[in-house]
UniProtKB/TrEMBL annotation:
Cell location: Mitochondrion inner membrane
Residues in Peptidase S26 domain copies: 53-116, 120-168
PANTHER family registered for this protein in UniProt: MITOCHONDRIAL INNER MEMBRANE PROTEASE SUBUNIT 1 (PTHR12383:SF16), PROTEASE FAMILY S26 MITOCHONDRIAL INNER MEMBRANE PROTEASE-RELATED (PTHR12383)
Keyword Chloroplast: no
Protein name according to UniProt: Peptidase S26 domain-containing protein
PROSITE patterns for the chain: SPASE_I_2 (PS00760)
Family statement drawn from the similarity comment of this UniProt entry: Belongs to the peptidase S26 family. IMP1 subfamily.
């Protein structure tokens, strides 16, 4: 590029920059930025209070859910006091507060629960009474699950939602049903 073409290009850029109504540009981009912030806030509020879609990762809930490759729908519009034995719940891990995990609700406050029916982590004769404000949670695949057998009753305050349905893969899409069977002696 020769000097005269370069000088012409520089003049053109200078006039465009100089003649631009920067107030209008700032206003236009400011409103676009506010729209983006509004959308981000709306998505955050929806995910925190209504529900979200999560991918499954880990073997603790087999055979109900695969180790990976499934997507589930979580409802956050729940009343913890209305959860029932057999519900699939999401909660903040008592061992790692940065992780969200899913387990089956096995015991309600006041229930007497066998700590470990498999006998792997505790004698199968050991029982515990679930304290007020807590649940007993267990993975469907006991051999591969870190659950209440490891960390005891879980505070209701850690419960975030209830799994409603499997949405992916489409051929396996279904609503989760409560499959709890109560055995009374």
């Amino acid at each position: 590029m020769n000097k005269s073409r370069l000088a012409g290009f520089a003049r053109k850029v200078w006039h465009n920059v100089h003649d631009t109504n920067w107030n209008a540009v700032g206003k236009r981009w400011g409103f676009k930025g506010l729209r983006v912030i509004n959308v981000v806030c709306a998505v955050h509020l929806f995910a925190d209070n209504v529900g979200w879609i999560h991918t499954v990762d880990g073997p603790s809930m087999e055979p109900t859910m695969r180790v990976s490759g499934e997507t589930v729908l979580e409802s956050r519009m729940i009343k913890r006091e209305r959860l029932r034995r057999g519900d699939l719940v999401t909660f903040i891990s008592p061992l790692d507060p940065t992780r969200m995990v899913c387990k089956r609700l096995i015991g309600l406050p006041g229930d007497v629960i066998c700590v470990d029916p498999t006998g792997q982590l505790a004698p199968s004769t050991e029982h515990v009474i679930i304290p007020k404000g807590h649940f007993w949670l267990s993975g469907d695949n006991a051999e591969m699950s870190r659950d209440s057998r490891t960390y005891g009753p879980v505070s209701m305050a850690l419960i975030k939602g209830k799994l409603i349905a499997r949405v992916w893969p489409l051929k396996d899409a279904e609503f989760f049903r409560n499959n709890f069977t109560f055995i009374d002696e």
